[in-house]
Design brief:
By secondary structure, the protein is mainly alpha-helical. Helices cover 54% and strands 6% of the residues.
Length: 356
């Protein structure tokens, strides 16, 4: 974004018309603009302020919006497509400064490249893409959230395909993350009387896993703060994958017959990794994270928990968990072949035009 702005500054900022000859819109309030309306991308930017103000007025806090826009400690972050860089990086700050009101300027702007849909540009008029209500008929919101974050075009244009969506849901969400959570909790539920096992002597493999647990929130949190959401989601999957590898290496289903204390320690470590994952999942898959929190029987909502609690292996020996269910469900093998017919059916129910 800085390079874009530097280029424009070097070339010299060109005058832009802020009115249009439209019969609809906000009438231009200055002399010589009779019959003209304000250009939508000029007035829409102020919607950030007006929406905040309207929200708090409706909530009965008429002046609270000022805490967001006049408080110098307030930080605003904007998530935009690359075609909107000039509006947010140049025009919006110029408008805020020109007002003379002391409004806080954009603190951070996260711009992405374009996401294509099956090789084509998204188009409302041509029906190319998937609408939110249609998407929720196809898969739960958490599936979409996580998959689209993994497909986030942070450095180059990317292409959404049903094949990639199918792969992420089945291989990453189910086989990796969901598998680790369920195999851990179901083993504890069935073999340890639904109680968190007791940790005995830790070996090097246990300590290595706990070391990863300790630093996972710091690493993932830093990526989120830096707005590298795709890398943050990938780091979450790496942490979950290391949990699966840990269980494979320790093989508690075998050691429970040979050395109960080793198996007990293994499952205590794994349970704490599940707790950590529940917290770290929350920004990406909020509903699924709350399910894991419920299975752990930790009370309240995971969204009320401090992020840094994910670094603590503090589940108490003997704490009873709830009966776990599989966290996710896989798409069928024929998902990709049948999705367009399924989408047509969804659109008929929702009375939407068919795909072009």
């Amino acid at each position: 974004i800085k390079n874009y702005c530097k280029m424009w500054f070097k070339e010299g900022l060109k005058a832009r018309s802020i009115t249009r000859d439209n019969s609809w819109g906000i009438p231009a309030p200055f002399p010589g603009a009779s019959g003209k309306t304000i250009y939508v991308w000029f007035e829409a930017l102020l919607g950030y302020l007006s929406a905040t103000k309207e929200y708090f007025i409706k909530k009965g806090f008429e002046d609270l919006w000022l805490e967001y826009w006049l408080n110098k400690d307030s930080k605003t972050v904007y998530f935009i497509g690359k075609d909107n860089i000039p509006f947010h990086a140049i025009i919006l700050p110029a408008m805020l400064m020109a007002s003379g009101e002391g409004y806080v300027l954009p603190w951070q702007i996260s711009s992405v490249e374009f996401l294509m849909f099956e090789g084509q540009a998204f188009s409302k008029s041509r029906g190319i893409g998937v609408w939110i209500d249609e998407a929720l008929e196809i898969a739960p919101a958490d599936y979409w959230r996580f998959a689209l974050i993994l497909m986030r075009p942070e450095t180059r244009d990317l292409n959404f395909t049903w094949e990639s969506f199918h792969r992420i849901v089945n291989a990453e969400i189910n086989d990796n993350l969901g598998n680790f959570v369920h195999r851990t909790l179901s083993f504890i539920y069935s073999r340890f009387d639904a109680k968190i096992p007791k940790p005995y002597e830790l070996d090097d493999r246990d300590r290595s896993m706990l070391y990863k647990l300790k630093f996972a929130p710091k690493n993932i949190g830093a990526l989120i703060e830096d707005l590298k959401l795709k890398a943050a989601a990938e780091s979450l999957l790496e942490f979950s994958s290391s949990g699966n590898q840990y269980l494979n290496d320790k093989a508690p289903w075998r050691t429970i017959k040979e050395d109960f204390e080793v198996a007990s320690t293994t499952m205590w470590v794994a349970a704490n990794v599940v707790k950590s994952l529940a917290i770290l999942m929350a920004p990406f898959m909020p509903f699924s994270a709350d399910k894991v929190w419920y299975y752990l029987n930790l009370g309240g909502s995971v969204h009320e928990v401090c992020w840094d609690d994910a670094s603590k292996a503090d589940l108490q020996y003997g704490h009873r968990i709830n009966k776990p269910e599989p966290l996710f469900t896989k798409f069928p093998d024929d998902f990709v072949k049948t999705i367009n017919d399924r989408l047509k059916d969804v659109r008929m129910r929702l009375k939407r035009p068919e795909l072009a």
